[in-house]
Amino acid sequence: MADRVVPWNNLPTDLLEAVGKRLKTKTDVSRFRAICRSWRSSVPPFDQKQPRFPIRIMMKLPFPVNCFFLTITEDTVYHLVPPPNINSDDSASTSSTRGWVVRLREGESGEPSMLHPLSSSFHLKRLPKSVFPKRLNLLEFRVFELAKTYTMYHSDHSVSSYRVAISLSPDWPAIMVVAAGKLYHCKLGPDIEMCTMVDTSEVFEDVICFEGKFYAVCHNGTAVVVDPSLEMTLIASPISPDHGSSVHCVKNLVESLGEILLVERHRRYLFPVKFRVYKLNAVERKWVEMEGLDGRILRVGKNNCCFF
Where do the KIB1-4 beta-propeller domain residues begin and end (predicted)? Predict the structure, then answer.
């Protein structure tokens, strides 16, 4: 007997609900619900439990004595892949079939704005007609969410040099900030919170959130993990000075394919002259230098780092 073919709109409800529970992003939920009526009724709209960005926090450094506010924005980086049979009249002949990397930021009103993928401050008012199709129907594109990045702004709208990481986990919604070499923590909630200093004995350079915990790295490569009780545990020893640790070295942490990487930028004056990338060996508590990126692309910005 031939196998019975079940139409997509007649799939069992329990199967659709099981798939829906594994959708973690707003993009995936929206595209799932757009298939048909039965799929839409099986999964509720994406529930944004966390406070809506931008959010504001309060900082008080050891100097100056006055408190000041910072605004944190959230950007989402997407990879848009066009369908193979895209109409040549709607796109330039030079458009790549590999698609485009776009960066979107949702404002207070919910309206998204598009930024340059490599800049947190360069807003795109118009899409280049020579590159993008005239109509951009996201239901016709394959959409991949690559990364989320966070940027801090001072009250005068200038970009802050502080590093920030955010945990959106319901078990520990929190913010960690590296400012003036010190690590600060505050709760993530609907109200403006004051950041408090976590540790004063080390000079930190960067912090990220990975699997519900915060990981911070010091200027010499020492790395620690911070748990919800704000206890620190050493996870990596310092990098040997003959491997590039110097006053002209800037460090960034990044999560890539379930691994924690450390990116070192060696500068001469204001210009980068060399990059080194290390992978965390959690068992031996050390950084292991990588010879290549295994096909990955790392975008290293002034205040953050992410992978494509």
Answer: 69-306
